[in-house]
Design goal:
This protein is an alpha+beta fold. The chain is built from 3 helices and 4 strands; from the N terminus they run E-H-E-E-H-H-E. Helix 1 (17-28) packs antiparallel against helix 3 (73-82).
């Protein structure tokens, strides 16, 4: 069994492609957080996303690993990079 952390994002209207690119590069570093099994992220390709433009899926060892991940410096760096460009965010976590 593993733990899945899913995040959907939309960006402020005035967010530039360069700002998005910089933000996306911070996501790749999440693979270096202890007990992270995989990190996948990409642009939405469906018309059913209710305005969300980008998705992130992080698979972790277990629930405790996700709690530790939330406090990890690399995750905090992602949150800090997202703040100025974030319009909306939706997160969901589950065991699978």
């Amino acid at each position: 069994m593993s733990f899945h952390h899913i995040v959907l994002l939309s960006f402020k209207e005035d967010t530039t492609d360069e700002q998005k690119k910089t933000f996306f590069s911070t996501l790749d570093a999440l693979k270096d957080v202890p007990n992270v099994i995989s990190v996948k992220h990409g642009k939405n390709v469906t018309d059913r996303a209710k305005g969300f433009e980008y998705g992130l899926v992080v698979v972790l060892k277990d629930r405790q690993s996700e709690l530790d991940y939330q406090k990890h410096d690399l995750h905090i760096k992602v949150l800090d990079a997202l703040k100025p460009i974030k319009k909306d965010v939706l997160a969901m976590d589950f065991d699978a």
